[in-house]
Batch of 2 targets.
Target 1
Amino acid sequence: MPSHPRILFGGASIGDDHVTQEEVLHLLQGLKELGIKEIDTARRYPAFNFGASEQLLGQAGAATLGFAIDTKVLVTSADGNGSLTPEKINESADFETPLEDQAAALDALHKAGVYNELGVSNWSEDMLIRFIAICKHHGYIQPSVYQGLYNVLCRDRETLIPVLRANGIVYNAYSPLGGGFLSGKLTSGNYDGTRFAKDNIIGKFSKLHFDKKMWHEAMNSLDETLKIANISNIEAALRWLSFHSQLGPNDGIILGASKLEYIEQNIAAIQKGPLPEDIASSMAKICVVV
């Protein structure tokens, strides 16, 4: 089977669905058995309990268990101490500070040993190019990771990939299932008990984006294609991103889940390998329509 991108666990559910140190340790053990060695988190995780994800990962000793922790930082002290202490973390630049000041400060923190690698998330191509130029001019540490939205329907960031390749930057793709939209449940109307349910606050934001005619038409077209091959929407989306997208083996796919069993199912889907050529081709055409 061809190699596929690295798999990272998305830690947004830690502190929400996994709320105790024991539960997090159980999750980490399961991830380790699946061969997942990286966890993506952020100071804003989970959505209604800021910082709990980082704190629980720190308490569980995720780094000492062999996991690499990537995080997005809101505010940190000068010595880098925080919820993940004493672990080193992978930093993320902010959007409010001028790029020149930002680059200088992040370089100083790197030299102080606060973090290992520099990553940016959701930056525009222009901003990233300017930031890299500043780093090269001053000899500062340059980004080695870019994190952005990428799935079979949301592919606008593909234009950025040549810039990443030219500068040795890997792409870590989040929302491989479009925030759950690619499950097809929102389009079918069968979404009780899912994130699209009326009582799910987070799901309301996803509905604002996806509950539109063009997305549902794309989803219906995808359904017709997959029914013939007896492949589920989720499996197809994951296999497409793993083997037919512009991601390479050094890039990453961030898989989040409220339960370990969902991650196990997603890994099993990816391990089925590339999609049949006609299915992959049909999915690519659907993306072009969108």
Target 2
Amino acid sequence: MQRDRTLELVRKRNEPWDIVVIGGGATGVGCALDAASRGLEVLLIEQHDLGKGTSSRSTKLLHGGVRYLAQGNITLVREALFERGVVFANAPGSVAIQPFIVPCYSVWQTIKYSAGLKLYDLLAGRRSLGRSRILKRNETIERLPNVNQKHLGAGVLYFDGIFDDSRLLIELAQTAAASGASILTYAKLVRIEKRLTSPESRIEFVDLESEDHIEVMARAVINATGAFSDQVRQLSDQDAGPLLKFSQGIHLVLDRRFLPTDDAMMIPVTPDGRVLFCIPWHERLLVGTTETPIDRPVAEPVAQDAEIGFVLEAAGAYLSERPTRDDILSVFAGIRPLIGSSQKTATSRLSREHRIEVDRSGMVTIAGGKWTTYRKMAENAVDRAIEVAGLRSVPSRTIDLPIVHRSSEITDGERLCADLPYTTGDVRNAVVNEFARSIEDVLARRTRILFIDARAALEIAPDVGAIVGELLGWTEEKKAKEVEEFTAVAAGYLPRHA
């Protein structure tokens, strides 16, 4: 298995790594890919699975950010639209063009949203995915069959990118590994030490599978741990002050009957000033998101009852058949790490731009940002790490570096669920070729069944555990424990009744 080979390599290595990246989300894996493709020797360590945190819990959009345009953040939108185009060029098999329709209930709304989306087209330039246009009332109803027709006047059509965040992340990791990066999951950081007498940092982590403590040396360290960046910064420098503030966003997954079309719907105004998306995804309907300020990040965030009610109410106002809690197939929450402000600013107004900080030991922290701009964030972070550590300067190569796109290499097997396309072969492929080490890794971030239908995931967990256990040599006691742990996690994806 990949992890066993990587762990053996790490244990035997005596030389310092050029860069050790902490964090296996989009930014961390992006950093590993960027650095490895420059010819640097890179180790990435991740406490959980790749994408366990925010990177698997997005709205599945590769976009400039229509809402940021309304806030006047032209620079962020232009950069994100450029980076969206880079992802489409480098990973064409992993992304898709998604038509969106904005329902308009007054002439003023039609004029306003049409003008704004024309500017969105203009900022995309030659990387535009399609020209926006106004739809007449009848065409809007035809393309959004369940839209609320009362007072509906028109619609505005525009185009953006859609993707499976976990799938693209695994493909980025495979590309990084193929470029020479060593990727080690379930490796918990416990210590970072920089001695005045040495230009290198000593990093200690625990292999959570063997419980062995392992030390490595690094010429440069990049902290790409997302919502947990401040905690890692304090390991490196106890005097480091907080850099981030946090908000939680949730998504509901519903049956496609609530929007039986290949078009997505963008709800332009919600009571908290956000936009809401209803997007076809894996033959279901993904609806979100929210903006709930929270004090501190947790590894397994859970949707609050009030958030679920908010999304149902906001989406229901635009639908003829309104969804209820009984219609929810799955609900998931993610945490946004936002660059903080000294002022009392609503999290919805905090910047989605990224920031790089270098502490007294020389550790580079990359924080903030969004999925769409992961590549540029990684490039900036690696550039800074090279500068701080005095490494051999080589320009980034990721702007036109193709991303690995493989269909399952193990194609045989029986269906896991009657109404879902995944097979036992997909489970084996996840473990053998895609870094998966647990039932949750397979059901949440390789097949997405937990995100699509939490009850179905619970039903098949023992069968999946049997396959994963066979491949990884689990005892019966270990299999039972894994099922128990997955059941506890999956409970947070089940819709609760107020």
